[in-house]
UniProtKB/TrEMBL annotation:
CDD domains: TER_DECR_SDR_a. It holds the Pfam family adh_short_C2. Keywords: Oxidoreductase. This is SDR family oxidoreductase.
Length: 293
């Protein structure tokens, strides 16, 4: 029995992903790296891809050492370019003999008032997030269908994909598109044995997200855990546990689902009277007295 904190403990049984080949876009850093680590520990072959090959190769070397699983391959691929996505697919199949899972995790984001954005700034986010996800989905899906092979797609979205969010409008619009694609293809491609699901994470500290969403002086004034009813941010292993389940055959009946993992954060922002949490017991006494009068 591990003595690690419960949030940091692996969940699935050993070898739960043995023999599966998984492609993780943006797998060299942050949450992509965390999910890749756990997939390797569970016996999968994992192809990690993004724009920066040096970052991917360093991660691959470190994860071989850390997990004892040598089956991790670094492949450079800008998801905005369809020919590079096709090359990623070919490299994966030629190396591991097939591919079972596509994890659309690559993203770009930054905070800004929308009127300050150039049209290129809007493009860059939508291109990475939405176009990148549909490029990969289309290439992998076409291959699975042509080869009559089942497949699993897992898309990493955000909680604001459903409700929108000020100051990250390109990301919100693009993630909403990815969520719509998830639900649409869950129905359309089920007949081919292809499942589509999504995870909507709340705040999980990573260098990539924190440097672009909570830069100074914001970081010292805004606590990302403050709006979370559980009063903490997520741990990477918690996300990896959910992702491993959703790409495994244990979740074979889950299709078209978006699983929120945010400690209740988005609902806290949504409920009309949730702010009453700030009231003290004495204030409630006073209010009750006034109301009953
Ligand atoms: C306004 C900006 C900007 C900023 C870039 N631009 N940063 N505009 N504010 N902070 C503009 C540039 O001026 C340019 O427009 C256009 O965007 C393209 O910028 P480039 O730097 O040339 O793009 P590129 O080198 O491709 O880099 C892409 C990037 C970068 C998205 C800008 O941040 C990146 O590589 N991000 C990848 C990782 C990442 O973002 N991770 C966080 C994911 S977190 P002009 O008109 O000047 O040419 C997430 C959800 C988290 O998604 C939710 C947390 C709760
Ligand atoms: P991250 O470390 O910055 O991850 C983003 C990854 O995307 C990087 O590895 C980056 O690698 C890759 N990438 C960017 N542009 C690309 C492109 N054009 N082609 C291929 N790869 C590209 O940030 P993260 O926090 O782990 O985010 C991972 C996912 O979780 C994202 O989908 C994000 O929206 C989602 N998410 C995160 C949080 C959070 O709190 N961290 C919350 C909600 C959702 P290169 O720079 O090498 O290309």
């Amino acid at each position: 029995m591990s003595t690690a904190h419960p949030y940091a403990q692996p969940m699935l049984r050993d070898n739960a992903l043995q023999g599966k080949t998984i492609v993780v876009t943006g797998g060299g850093t942050g949450l992509g790296r965390a999910m890749t680590t756990y997939f390797l520990q569970l016996g999968a072959n994992v192809v990690i891809s993004s724009r920066k090959l040096e970052v991917l190769e360093k991660t691959a070397t470190e994860l071989r050492e850390q997990t004892g699983n040598a089956n991790v391959l670094a492949v450079q691929c800008d998801v905005r370019k369809y020919d590079e996505v096709e090359a990623l697919l070919e490299k994966t199949i030629s190396t591991y003999g097939g591919v079972d899972v596509l994890l659309n995790n690559a993203a770009g984001n930054f905070i800004s008032p929308t009127e300050r954005l150039s049209h290129k700034a809007f493009d860059v986010i939508v291109d990475i997030v939405l176009k990148g996800s549909y490029n990969c989905t289309l290439a992998f899906g076409k291959r699975w269908i042509a080869d009559k092979k089942p497949g699993t797609i897992l898309n990493i979205v955000t909680t604001y994909a459903s409700v929108g969010s000020a100051f990250v409008v390109p990301s919100a619009a693009a993630k909403a598109g990815v969520l719509a694609m998830t639900r649409s293809l869950a129905v359309e491609w089920a007949k081919y044995g292809i499942r589509s699901n999504a995870i909507a994470p709340g705040p999980f500290p990573t260098e990539g997200a924190w440097s672009r969403l909570f830069p100074e002086p914001l970081a010292s004034q805004l606590d990302p855990a403050a709006n979370v009813p559980l009063k903490r941010v997520g741990s990477h292993q918690e996300l990896a546990n959910l992702a491993a389940y959703m790409v495994s055959d244990f979740s074979a009946y889950m299709n078209g689902e978006v699983v929120t993992l945010d400690g209740g954060e988005w609902l806290n922002g949504a409920g009309e009277f949730n702010k009453l949490e700030l009231l003290t017991s004495e204030m409630w006494d006073q209010i009750e007295k006034t109301m009953r009068r």
